[in-house]
Amino acid sequence: MKKEYLILTALILILGAYVLFHKENRDHTNLPEIKKIDTSGVTEIILDKKDGPIRLTGKGDAWTLTDKAYPANLSAVKNILDTLKTFKLSALVSGKGDLNRYELDEGGRIRVRVMAGEKVVFELSMGKTAPTGNHTFVMIGNDQNVYHADGSFRPYFDKSVAEFRDKKVVEFKQESIRKITIGKGETFKIFSLTKKSAPAPKDQTDKKDKTGKKDEPRVSWNDENGIPADKEVIESLLSSLSFLECDDYLNDSGKDELKDATPLCLIRLENDTVIEVKLFPAETEDRFTGISSMNPYAFFLDQYTGKDMVSDIETLLGLTGSKENKE
What we know:
By secondary structure, the protein is an alpha+beta fold. It has eight helices and 19 strands. It has a nine-stranded antiparallel beta sheet. A hairpin with a 4-residue loop joins β3 (62-65) and β4 (70-71). α5 (231-242) runs antiparallel to α7 (303-317). The N and C termini lie far apart (81 Å).
């Protein structure tokens, strides 16, 4: 009897494997052929969503957003292009047209049209992420079948215009700055970078320190009277500014409205060009408003970053104690 059970179990396993193999084979043979997308030739990506279409337009390495040509976040665009480049179907899920359960109905889906010039080179509709977490429910072109596509990529496409915008408002190399002007209220100071050669070692034949590194010039920041500034605070301020991203943008006319307003703080940085940033208090306490010479739009800055920058400016102007004393 025990032997019969073993034989029966083996037959069940073999039959299950046979059914599974043929199901997978059938699923793959029923998949439409997807031609590899040459993303280098893509000029436009149109995302049709329930709350309206979003148009991403590419020209070379630059991408813009909507008919107002807002600069797009290149990292967000790259995620979309990489998804299209590696797009692959893995299984047929349904041919019954029951779209609601997959969020492929009119209200739930995101329709993606990929353009090369005037030509649509690829079109798909994407629904929700499959329960596996590794697939997304999709339909291809006018095909009403529902398929599994490899990857959980809907979040890359399911963004608002604000989320697709490039939030970078200031960018520079910290070591390139040679002069800093800061102001708050009626108080202003100018700091200039000074480099002095390190003192020569006693043994002139060895110009390296104990770590084996060559002595580097001493760097200091001095005000108009030659008084050294707190180097740590200067570096903190420059670090905050060197790659500054905003929370969001004001309306398109916000920069013109703020141009003549009195700022809470002013920062002017000089290298080969002049970079100017002005911070204003916002209507609510949780963020600041700002404008930058490197960005055509007025922006909102989060409270933490804004307060840190204001604190550094107040310290350097002598309006408060040092950072160490405040902490």
